[in-house]
Amino acid sequence: MEYRLSFALLAGMMFVNNLLWLFFWSLFFNRFPVVNGWELRDVMMLWAVGAGGFGWASVLFGNFHRIAAIVSSGQLDVYLSQPKPVLLGVLASRMSVTAAGDLLFGLAIYAWVGDRSLAGACAFALGLLISGLLFMGVMLIAGCLAFYLGNSEGIASQVFNSFVSLTTYPADIFRGMARIALFSIVPAGFISYLPIGLLRDFDPAFAAGALAMAVGSCLAGAWLFGRGLKRYGSGNAIAMRS
Amino acid sequence: MLALRTRGLSKTFKVKRKEPGLGGSLRSLFRPQWETKPAVRGIDLDVEQGETVAFLGPNGAGKSTTIKMLTGILHPSSGEAEVLGLSPWRQRAELAYRIGAVFGQKSQLWYHLPPVDTFELIGRVYEMRRDEYARRSRELIERFELGPYLHTPVRKLSLGERMRCEIAAVFLHRPQLLFLDEPTIGLDVVVKQRIRELIRERNRSEETTVFLTSHDAGDVEELCSRVVVIHHGGLLLDEPVERMKRDVLNRKTINVTLADPVSDAALALPDGARVVRAEGRTLTVAVDLRRTAIEQVLATWIGRVRLEDITVEDPPLEETIKHIYGMRQETEAGA
C-alpha cells in the first residue's frame, strides 16, 4: 500500500466521526429513552448497517457515487476500449479509503450491541447487503442522469447527501407524505427501518421488499447505464486513472 | 484483407448555444437554443491489414471522433463501419480483444500504481494465459526498456517514460489493429524517435495495422505508408505518404544562430531558399526541397559565416493541411 499513514488516518477519522454522532444520539436517548419505539441500541444498529453497507460498497465499488462526474467529463473512454462490462469496470476501478473506516465502524458496533447469534449475524449480513446495494442503485440511477441531462454532478451530489442524511434517522420519526417518499422516491427508509424490520422484530414482508428494492434499483441503474452509453458524447479532458 | 471499412460514417453532436455574459446565461436558462454540429460527415475509408495509416486534420476536423466510433466508444449518427469484420458499437467487447487504443490525453495506467500493476491487470482484463502474459510482458519490458521504472508509481514517471509504458501496455494482448491518437504529444525529439521506432518494429514483426492521428509531420513521414486527411469532418485527401512528401511536404525551415550579426554572406542563398526573418544574429530560412537541398544551403554558409546553432524543422502540419485544402479548391475551381 502506497500511502499507509494516509489510509490509517482517513479510515480512523471516519470511524471517530461516526462514533461522535452516536455520542450525540446517546445524549438524546439519556433524556428520552424511547422515541416512537426506538431505543439507543436500535439507532446504533441503524448506524452500523448504514455505515457498514456504504463501507463495503465503497471499498469494492468506489466509483458508484462518481458516475455523473465520470460520464460528463468523458472518462468512460478507457473502460469502453476494454473488453469487460463497462459498468462493472467503472465501479470496481476505485476503492474509497475512508469507507474502510465506515465498514470497520459498522462491524465494531455490531460486535458491541448487535445480536451475535448465527441468526443475528445472518440478519446483519443481509442488512449490510441491502444497505450497500441500495446506496449503489440510487447513486447509479442519479449518476446516469448525466447521459440525458449533460452535467448532472450537482444533482447527483444532492441526491447522495440527502440519501445519506435520511439513512441516519430512525424511519419512524417520519409520517404521512414524508414516509411515503422515504419508501419510494428516495428509498432511504428501506435502510433506516432495517434495525426494526430486519434485526429486532423480523418482518419477512419488509425484508423481502427491501431486498427487492435494493436489487431492483441496481438493475434499473444498470439498464439506464446501458441505454445511456448510446448517448455518451466522450470529451477531451486530460484524464488519469486514480 | 480489409482491417477497417467505413461507409458514410457520420457523427453529429447537439450543442447548446449561449450568448456571452450573464444576460446570455439567463436567456439560455429560460429559452435554450440548440444547434446540430456535424463532427464527421460521411467518411468512406478502406484500410488493408498491416497498413500504417496517418489520419490527419486540423484541430476539430473529426479525427478523434472517428477513432472513437471505430473503437466502439461512440455510436455514430449514421453510416456503417466494420473493424476486423465486426461492428465496433454493436460488438464492442468482442472487438476490444483484437484492437488496441492509445489516447495521448487519456491514460490507462493507474496514476498511483507502478506500471507493473497495470500490466498485470491488463493481462487479466484481456484473459491472457499466465505463461503467455509472463512471456509477452518480459519481451515488451525488454524491448521498450521499461525495467528501471517498472516498479515506480506512474505519477513519478516523466511524460516520455509514461508514454512508453502506455504503448507497451497496449501491445500486451497482441492487437491486430492499433489506434494511436496523438501518441507523441508533448514529448521531446529523442523520446518521439524511440516511440516511433518501437511502433514501427511491432508493425513489421507482428503485422499490426496502425491507424494514427498526429500533429507531427515526423510521425507521418517515419511511421506511415499512407495518409488520409480530413477537414471539417469530410475526407480531403487519401494517398501514399511518398506522394504527399513529394507534392506537399516539400518545405523545411532552417533556424540559424550566427556568431556575428547577419551579414550579406549569410543572406547569399541558392535558388529555392529564401530568408523569412533576419534579426540580430538569428536567421530563419525557408527551403523548397524541389529546387534545392538542405545540404546545399548549409554548404553556402560553411567557411563564410561562423555558425553557433542550427535546427531544421518541418512546417506545422496545420499549415500543410491548409496548403492541401487550397490546392484542392484550386483544382475544383479549375475543373
Roughly how much helix do the residues of chain A carry, as a percent range? Answer: over 70%
Order of helices and strands of chain B: EHEEHEHEEHHHEHEHEEHEHEEHEH
What gyration radius of chain A follows from the Cα positions, in whole Å? 19 Å
> Mind describing the biggest β-sheet of chain B?
6 strands, mixed
The CATH superfamily of the largest domain in chain B appears as P-loop containing nucleotide triphosphate hydrolases
Which secondary-structure class do the elements of chain B indicate?
alpha/beta
For the record, the CATH architecture of the largest domain in chain B stands as 3-Layer(aba) Sandwich
Instruction: Catalogue the unreliable spans of chain B.
Output: none
Q: What strand order characterises the main sheet of chain B?
A: 5-7-8-3-9-10
Uncertain runs of chain A are none
Question: For the terminal residues of chain A, how far apart are their CA atoms?
Answer: 14 Å
Q: Give, in order, the helices and strands of chain A.
A: HHHHHHHHHHHHE
The first-level CATH class of the largest domain in chain B is given as Alpha Beta
Report the end-to-end length of chain B measured between terminal Cα atoms: 35 Å
Estimate the strand proportion of chain B: 25-35%
> What is the residue-mean pLDDT of chain A, rounded to a whole number?
90
Per DSSP, the total helix count of chain A is 12
- The percent range for helix content of chain B is 25-40%
Could you please describe the fold and organization of this structure?
The complex is a heterodimer of chains A (242) and B (335). By secondary structure, chain A is an all-alpha fold. Chain A has one domain. Chain A contains twelve helices and one strand; from the N terminus they run H-H-H-H-H-H-H-H-H-H-H-H-E. Chain B is α/β, with parallel strands linked by helices. Chain B has two domains: 2-6 and 40-247, Rossmann fold; 251-313, Alpha-Beta Plaits (2-Layer Sandwich). Chain B has helices spanning 21-30, 63-70, 92-96, 115-125, 130-143, 159-171, 189-206, 217-223, 241-247, 264-267, 294-301, 317-334, and strands at 2-17, 33-48, 52-56, 78-83, 99-103, 106-110, 177-181, 209-213, 226-231, 234-240, 251-258, 273-279, 282-288, 307-313. A six-stranded mixed beta sheet of chain B has the order 5-7-8-3-9-10, sandwiched between helices. In chain B, strands 12-13-11-14 form a four-stranded antiparallel beta sheet, covered by helices on one side. Chain B has a three-stranded antiparallel beta sheet with strand order 2-1-4. In chain B, helix 6 runs parallel beside helix 7. Chain B is globular and about 65 Å long. The two termini of chain B are 35 Å apart. The relative contact order of chain B is 0.12. Classes of the chains: A mainly alpha (242), B alpha/beta (335). At the A-B interface, helix 4 and strand 1 of A face helix 2, helix 3 and strand 6 of B. Strand 1 of chain A pairs parallel with strand 6 (106-110) of chain B, so a sheet runs across the interface.
